[in-house]
Each structure stands twice: as structure tokens, then as C-alpha cells.
Amino acid sequence: MQTSFRSGALRSAGQQPGSKRRASCQCSAFLPHAGRQQHQMQHKQVALALPGDRSSSRRRLEPLNAQRRSPVIAPDIAIGSGEDQSFMDLYNYLLRQRIIFLSGYVNDKCLQQQQQQQQQQQQQQQQQQQQQQQQQHQQYELATQIVGSLLALEALDEEEEIRVYINSPGGQPYSIIGVVDTMQSIKPPIKTVTLGACYSYASLLVAAGTKCRRYSMKNTRIMMTQPMGGSQGDIYQIAATVAELNAIYQLIARYYIKFTGMTADEIERATNRDTFMTPEEAQQAGLIDGIIRGDGGTDYTTPPGVVRQLEDLGFVDRLTGGVLKTGRSF
Q1: How confident is the model at residue 324, as a pLDDT?
Q2: Which one of 6, 88, 106, 219 has the minimum C-beta count within 10 Å?
Q3: Comparing 20-29, 262-271, 307-316, which segment has the lowest mean pLDDT?
Q4: Which residues does the annotated region (Disordered) include (predicted)?
Q5: How far apart are CA 37 and CA 39, in angstroms?
Q6: Rg (CA), the chain
Q7: 3-state secondary structure string, 275-306?
Q8: What domains lie within the chain, and their CATH numbers?
Q9: How many CB atoms sit inside 10 A of residue 194's CB?
Q10: pLDDT, average across residues 257-266
């Protein structure tokens, strides 16, 4: 038996060139049944591997579904040159420059796990505790990372400034209070800059920075609110939860009064409902000290012609850079 390869196709010596029917392999006739099946499978694999085979071109392989695990890849920063050159990931490089980037929900996973365990049944609690113990060794809480970074930078230099950039929708009150207490206890001055969104208790982190070093980007949205929570059980348990929420609210309100200079009544009005602010309104309320515009102090987000028309109508103030008047006072 002779086997020849023509135009990338595997053909038997007795097969016609234009035939669509593939001749069966004759060498498998001398093999036992088990070896014959294995030998035929090898021929099929060879036929699929040959791109020029017309009969195998109709066979469609399953498409590859590639999934991107990480949509954003942090670049490595090169430090030094020549033989002394080394690479460092982005966040470690920023930390070496005394920059802390706070992004996301500020929480403590251990506290969340305890709250979830109290609401679930006893059988589910045992399974969750095993999973939680494994996750605790693999994951770090954002609040713990921030506190550890602040303490480490203080140990390196007690006088150089620490910059904290905040883009957060809020977080758990216990975690926020822990970060604020750490910011107040360390010696280096802390410059806070908010960008994007700074909602809920994250606004307290911005206000906790050193006076005259608290800033906001020109298009940041800032929001103040009061603690929220729920409880279930008997009347004594519900009363204890309400008392704890009230204690947290009083603590956060005292911090707002200390950082902003607002009165207790103004804090109560601002946190009674979700109060959204522009950077100008946040500066008026005392949460920040300045606005980073990035264009020489001129804000071109509103067309100048529209600003002049609104100024003539009395809807905007020329000193606020074309920001609409909302009538809110603090």
C-alpha cells in the first residue's frame, strides 16, 4: 500500500483525484480491533491538521472563547538604568512617592462576614466560616491597607507630606472611622484630593485632611448622608441596634463639626437626606479648601456665551465660574 500527499490532502493510491469520498485505510486491516480503532483515530487527526484537504474543510472546530480576567493592566515602572535597573508595579511606586489612591468601597471584610453569619442559618454558617477563613488569608481589606500605608509612611518620614486621592462611593462607618482616627493620630501632614465621586462617609475622609490641604477636582460630586442600618429580632435587640446607629451618627457629626466648622443644626440638615454638592458648594460648607481646575483657574465646562446670558438673568454668579445657583445654604 502506498500513501501520497497531494495539495495537502491525504489520499490512498487507489483514490481518484476528484473523488469526494475518502478511501479507507488498508493498513488497519492487519491490526487487531483495539489497535485498528486507535490507528483510524490517528488518521483522522492527521486529516484535520492538513489545511488543504477539501473534505476536512467542511469540519468546523469549536470556537475559542477567550475571557479577559483583568480589564486593566497596571504598568510596571522602571527604576534606575543599566545593571541597577529594576521594575516596580504602579501602586508600590505611588506608595514610594507617598501617594495613596483610595478607590472603591471602604469596608472591612471581617465585619461584613460577621453580619452575614448572624442573618443566616446555623448550617450555612459553618460552611461560610470555612470559606471565610480561606479568603482572609488571600484578600486584604481596603481599610486595613490604607491604615497600614499611613503608618508605614509615618515610620519612613514624620515630616514629609502624604497625599491621599479619594474616589469612593462610601463605606462602612466603622472602617471609615478607623481610617479617620489613623489620619488624626499620625504626625505627617495629609493632603486629600477627591476626584470622580465622593459619596456618603467618604466625604468625611476628604474633610479629615490637614487644613488648607484639602482639595477637589472641578467636576467631582460630593455627597453627605447619615448612617443607615437595620435589625431584626426582639424589641431589646432592635433597641440596641438603634442606640448603636445613634452613637455612630453622633460620632460622625462631631467629626464633621470639627473638620468643617459647621454647627450641629447645619450638619443635621445636610445629613437628614442625601445632600449632593458641587466642589464650590463643598468648599462653602467647609469640606474642602480649594478646587483644582487644571486650566489656569478658568472653568470652560459651560460655554462663555451661555454663562453671560445666565448672568444677565441672575441664575449664576460670576465668582463661581458659571455654577448654577441652587439656593442651598449651610
Answers
A1: 47
A2: 6
A3: 20-29
A4: 1-22, 36-67
A5: 5
A6: 33
A7: EEECHHHHHHHCCCCEEECCCCCCCCCCCHHH
A8: 76-109+138-295 (3.90.226.10)
A9: 30
A10: 91
